[in-house]
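Risk register update: the risk of archive-format incompatibility is retired. Evidence:
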Amino acid sequence: MFFAGNWLSDQPEKRRAEIFFLAYSPVWMVLMAVMVFTGWDKTFTNTQLLIHSLIVALPLLLVPAAIEIKGASKSNIKRSWLNSYWLKANLFIGIFGFFGNYFGSYYFFDVLGMVYNYPNATTNLDSALLNQREQPVPVIMYLYTHAYFMTYHTTANLVLRKINVIDKRLFFLPIAFLVGYVWAWIETKAMANPLMASSFYYKNMPAMLAYGSAIYACYFIVSFPIFFLIDERKNHKWSLQTVCMSALAASMMVFYLLDIAAHIVKALY
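Archived output:
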């Protein structure tokens, strides 16, 4: 039955982290909405933008850490923070999100016409070879992506965990792609709105929503199943080394998918 079993992890620490990541999602969405509606994205200085992006991203690391430290103190149980799920989740998303901005962004710039226009964001981190159109990637995007991706991957955990009780061989990857496509479409539509028209837009919005969201979902058909497996089983805890290798492997797999998608889009247009 689809509604059998839990949506959240049955591993206590992972469950607590998932609850926080989900509870924090509306908070970062409000923080981003306030920036857009107030026009701060256009009026903030580079330093103010960096501070805002840190305010959005850092709670995902600091709050779960504080919760676990406080819980360990109350129970007088010594725990290694290096083996904590909240750290592993943040490490995976940090590596994968870095890839998505540093390398993956250029496929959207060059193939799908995505444009960043943040002249006030002067701290950038760009690929040396892929940046053919000299479109910079502001550092703030790396931090905002961390919040986006944590929400996407945590909600995917819930869905994949539920699907896993039916028949993972039949539904797992298609559902991962579907959840990824939904989030990709929502993000694209939310970001490319009239209030941000001068800062962030697509030259061909219909094509981006149709093809671009599917291409964006290529990220998640790879990363969702891998992220889901982190500490999912009681007697199979991942090391930080395994998390790093898995995030790097997922990034490389997505690189191949993006390049294949670029060939297809160029053939169609």
